[in-house]
Here is the input.
Amino acid sequence: MKISDLLKLSTDNLRRRKGRTVLTLIGVVIGTCLIVVMISLGIALNQQYEGMLRSYGDLTKIQVYNYTYSGGGNNENAPPVLDDKMLETFKQIPHVIAATPQYQPSNLSAQLYAGKGDRYQTYFNVNGMDPASLEAMGITLVSGGYLSADQTTTSKNKIPVLVGENFGYSFEDTRKSYNSGKRYVYQGQLDANGNPVPPFVDINKDKMILRMSDNAENNPKTREYELVVVGVMKSDYNAGYFTDSGIVMSIADVKKLEQAYQKLTGSKGGNSYMVSSTGGLMREKDNGYNNVYIKVDDVDNVADVEQQIKDLGYKEIQSLSQVREQMQGQVRKQQLTLGGLAAVSLLVAALNIANTMTMAIYERTKEIGVMKVLGCELGKIRGMFLIESGAIGFLGGVVGVVISYVVSFIINNLQTIIMFLGLQNQQNGEMGYDSMGMMGGGMMGGASSIIPWWLVVGAILFATLVGLVSGAVPANKAVKISALEAIRRE
Amino acid sequence: MNPIVRVEHLRKVYRVGKEKVVALNDVSLGILPGEVCCIVGASGSGKSTLLNQLAGLEKPTKGKVYIGQHEISAMTENELAKFRQAHLGFIFQSYNLLPNLTAVENVAMPLMFKGVGRKERTKQAMAQLKRMGLAKRANHKPTEMSGGQQQRVGIARAFVLKPKVIFADEPTGNLDTKTTRQVLYRMLAMAKENGTTFVMVTHEKDLAGCADRVITIQDGNVLSDIVVDEETKAKNRAQMFAGVEENLVPDEPVAAQPDTPDTKKSEEK
Here is the structure.
């Protein structure tokens, strides 16, 4: 017997019992539709959470702190030294792309000058980072290039740096009094004609001089370096606030400046103790970075890498993926609850299919008997009934998915639809710009129901499977019918 | 000549509640290839049970049934299905046509099970229906046909695969005398033409007279197994089919028309 003949027999049978087939189908349609919509709501919720998290920062970044809450000043629980060697160890961990501190030297104070006669001035705040990690850390450039490892200190007193795109605004005009509004230019400040006011210093053109001093009252000793801007960073708070108006240079250069400053002033950076907010003593290790950022290749590997870092002895680790896991757990719980409810309705649909198929077999007992006597193999008889129940599941799944799309569309555009109906009701109302604005706002809020392709395929497959499974028992029953008794039946 | 259907010490016991009913006691017989064999007996004698055992529709309690070289009493249901497909045909008392299929689809059904393509099997089924004088009824549903016509569709269906053996259980039981004779005539002619062994259960003695072999069953035992001699057979057949041959309307005997509006339409064609 050919498959095409089997298919035709089955579909003919379904068509003959149109009314019953349609009723059974409706059950499957409702079940599938509920499941798809529930899952789509969960997916949308998850995506909204993810979006929220992303706005907090990079999910694949881990922050490792170099302190522990050690009781009574003993150092047994203290983490190992977080130095450049340890950085290399971090980089060896699988899935780690980059590891860098954002090193802000505590024992270095200097001023930056620009303009004729050092007219413009700002405090020198620097982040020392591993040049190889910049791109991985999410720093993007408006112009120029990244720092490269061999670029450090091209000549003795020239230091390559990256600056934030709004770095120019941090300079102040020393010729204006502190009370004058003209001493500062803010980003976004407009002049009388409504044009933005440029900062005092053009970071791409003007020469910037770093000057440190021992602040002696008479004849102070000073040292000068020139900062060479090799790239301008795009302002992105997820990568760090310093990308807006800060300076980045290689760790080696920062350390060189630090040493020069110490030599100049004779002061030494000592161990510093800090008191945590809970009153415990946080100990900063000697010669170690306060904290280090680690970039992981994929969100899914973050937990794994975190564990390995913990194994190295660092207890204070922070990453958004911890928050993410909690959120996902919550969403999963919600999805399970919603999906469970939907599954109940599909279960009812499955019972419905089984009932329909059982009825069909009672009606067609004689037919089955005749087919058996005429030499129809048992497998084909089973196949015929399975195709029928599977087809009900498949069709129900397809229609259910289509309806889900409609429901999803309505959910996503609920505000717009209500607005539209509102417009109809209040035709005299002045709904011009306001309603348009609100409509726009409603759409900006993000979809609250999302149906990805795998959900479509999965739902249809699942509905078909439900059909097949619920048809299996009746189909086996059909196979077991005694041919002799069946043909004797009137 | 070796018998094509062979039965050895067949015994069939039914359980009805706590009682055992012996339907067949100890039956042994053989039917030769190409024979027309009638199994006769009073109702309750066990003749239908015997036919069911011969056709493999039921498993015997004891004993063996052979068709050709194959012991069908030992086959699984799937093996039996394939065997039936290849070698056996069936004609039923109540026709057992599928009500949702047309005549030609009913006839083509065994071919479909065998895997013959739609075009080819329709062609073969049409040829068979023509032989039965039902070409014009090919696209009618069973409910639109008379009993005689339905049974002729049944016969066409049994012969369409050119089986070695055809089993018929009271094939004329639901038909009037005149139609009975016509249907019987057709069956015998077809069997002879194809060299088919034809095993028929009937309780009408005069039908049995036309057979090559008459097996009489009584109380689950073979009462007699008679090979009818040619002379008697010829005489019986002549008597039985007197006038049938002339009256054998090649198509649509008017007497057997059911009065559905559909039929009238096709008459006008």
